[in-house]
Amino acid sequence: MVQPYNDRDGFIWMDGALRPWREAEVHILTHALHYGSSVFEGQRAYNGKIFKLTEHSERLHKSAEILGFKLPWSVAEIDAACEEVLEANGLTDAYVRPVAWRGSEQMGVSAQATKPHLAIAAWEWGKYFDEKKANEGIRLDIAPYRRPAPHTAPVHAKAAGLYMICTISKHEAEAKGYDDAMMFDWEGRVAEATGANIFFIKDGVIHTPIADVFLNGITRRTVIELAKKRGIEVIERRIWPEELAQFEQCFLTGSAAEVTFVKEIGPWQFAPGDISRQLRADYDDLVNGRG
Questions:
Q1: Cα angle 166, 268, 182; round to 5
Q2: Residue 82 half-sphere exposure, CB side, CA atoms within 13 Å?
Q3: Rounded to the nearest 5°, which phi and psi values hold at 82?
Q4: Which of 37, 74, 107, 211 is most exposed, with the fewest beta carbons within 10 Å of its own?
Q5: Helix axis angle, 75-88 relative to 53-66, nearest 10°?
Q6: Long-range contacts of 77-80 (CB under 8 A, 24+ apart)
């Protein structure tokens, strides 16, 4: 059984100082709890170093700006706080979660009087998907919800509210025996999984959806760079569901998921191949300082 996240030993950085884990709390009338005015990051530390930490802190700042509030902590200060949390908890290989939100100074849709808050937690967290399944390839259902159009939601912010439909979709998939779900975009094209970007391979070429209605993930960008270094062509384009039968390999990328093979999406079947395995090895080498 997973230990509850509110009842652990250790420290959480909150609004400028470390607090005992169990004392890092917010008020019930916090604006973010009622209206979703919160942004966050997910990042991993390997051998005591947080991978691409500054890129994550920069994105946290940008996400808050998109939602209309400004963080009073600089990118450098957030970087330092993340490292402080890692050290205070005695962690070297861990998941790090910065989260920023609007406070409880004002209630209602308007939030101009609220103050921004920031907390950073870190804990040991193994593979996002079962390791055996991830090696063989996980199974994805088709999500009941679609990623929203860019003119209907702040799709380029890592905003908490955008994950509500992801939770619903993942729960529905798991209830059917799947590991996750693939989401279409608002026009019915392939978008991403519930918390990771998606890639396909055919005839030695990688194809991945254009990141216009979902986050252009930091791991996504990293894997594209790794592929190009090996001379593998990467095509970012619109992908329609009827094309999936033509692809041979499929994998997901994300800070939590890292590089995870996919063997099934609804009626479509895939198998891990040389390119998928090479990119996973390259990513593992890079994050562990071997690349």
A1: 10
A2: 31
A3: -60, -45
A4: 74
A5: 120
A6: 78/118, 78/120, 79/53, 79/54
| The pairing of beta strand 180-184 with beta strand 190-193 | antiparallel
Determine if the pTM surpasses 0.85: yes
pLDDT interval class at 291 (50, 70, 90): low
Quick: pLDDT tens for 124-175: 988 888 777 778 899 999 999 999 999 999 999 999 999 999 999 999 999 9
**Helix residue spans in 218-273 (DSSP H):** 218-229
211: region left, alpha or beta (phi > 0 left; psi from -120 to 50 alpha): beta
DSSP secondary-structure letter at 147?
Answer: B
Which residues fall within 8 angstroms of residue 175, CB to CB, at 6 or more apart?
none
Tokens of 244: 């999936």
Q: Which domains are assigned to the chain?
A: 11-123 (3.30.470.10), 131-287 (3.20.10.10)
Are 197 and 253 in contact, with CB atoms under 8 Å apart? yes
Catalytic residue among 158, 228, 229, 263: 158
